[in-house]
């Protein structure tokens, strides 16, 4: 029996300005409250754009919400001449719990390498912000049946020089690129295959305790209609949800996956 608390994280991507963020978060909180959601059983997080974070913090604090929040990216540096970058220290000061690192959209549009992902993970950990490390293969890699090898190489690169103590706190999100925003979902068996492989590699890199502590999420066109079958898999500990998290009622259903 796993002691890992499932995590349902909504990646809003570049959607919802700070006013829309408040409305969406309020509606999500009301819907989960109506459903008597037990946050100690399933953690719920939203990852808004940077410019929404202060408003989200204000609402969470004022209404004592149990929903936690995160950012979608972070700088590899803590301060200095890095125009346009956001320090992990600033995120921590805004009460941010999580930060997505190495999302496939950043790897694709901003050429983020495993080396940079590794530097960002260290930077987030240094400020006490929990990385949600995103890994996963594109369609050509899957067709070539090289998806496991590819994803585990991304994992290893991202975790270079990260201690077991630190690794235990990290969340890994397996997100096959071909399933992100496409409406095409990996099968629950695909999600389990990779989650198990990720956990197996963590046990090799560290030890069994560390591997058993790390939460592995699945991401890629998760909806209320497919979440339960994915969550039924033993190595899947939650979901990173993009498009469907913009609809608070749908995201609340996903978070409850019943
Ligand atoms: C994501 O952005 O991480 C994601 C999984 O998106 P979607 O759910 O829209 O496929």
TrEMBL record:
Catalytic activity: D-glyceraldehyde 3-phosphate = dihydroxyacetone phosphate
Gene transcribed to yield this protein: tpiA
Enzyme Commission (EC) number: 5.3.1.1
Pfam families: TIM
PROSITE patterns assigned: TIM_1, TIM_2
Enzyme class: isomerase
Protein name, per record: Triosephosphate isomerase
Subunit structure: Homodimer.
Family, as annotated: Belongs to the triosephosphate isomerase family.
Subcellular location: Cytoplasm
């Amino acid at each position: 029996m796993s002691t890992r608390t499932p995590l349902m994280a909504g990646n809003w991507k570049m959607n919802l300005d700070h006013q829309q963020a408040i409305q969406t978060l309020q509606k999500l909180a009301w819907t989960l409250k109506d459903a008597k959601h037990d946050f100690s059983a399933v953690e719920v997080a939203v990852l808004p754009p940077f410019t929404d974070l202060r408003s989200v913090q204000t609402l969470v604090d004022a209404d004592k919400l149990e929903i936690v929040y995160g950012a979608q990216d972070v700088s590899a540096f803590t301060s200095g001449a890095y125009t346009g970058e956001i320090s992990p220290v600033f995120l921590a000061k805004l009460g941010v719990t999580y930060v997505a690192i190495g999302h496939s959209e950043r790897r694709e549009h901003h050429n983020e390498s495993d080396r940079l992902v590794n530097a960002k993970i260290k930077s987030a950990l240094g400020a006490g912000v929990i990385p949600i490390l995103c890994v996963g293969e594109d369609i050509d890699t899957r067709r070539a049946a090289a998806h496991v090898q590819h994803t585990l190489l991304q994992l290893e690169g991202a975790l270079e020089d990260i201690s077991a103590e630190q690794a235990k706190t990290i969340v890994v999100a397996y997100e096959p690129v071909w399933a992100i925003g496409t409406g095409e979902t990996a099968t629950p068996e695909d999600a389990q295959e990779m989650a198990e492989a990720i956990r197996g590699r963590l046990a090799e890199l560290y030890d069994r305790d560390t591997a058993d502590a790390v939460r592995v999420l699945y991401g890629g066109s998760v909806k209320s209609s497919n979440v339960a079958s994915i969550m039924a898999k033993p190595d899947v500990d939650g979901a990173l949800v993009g498009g469907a998290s913009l609809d608070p009622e749908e995201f609340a259903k996903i978070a409850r996956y019943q």
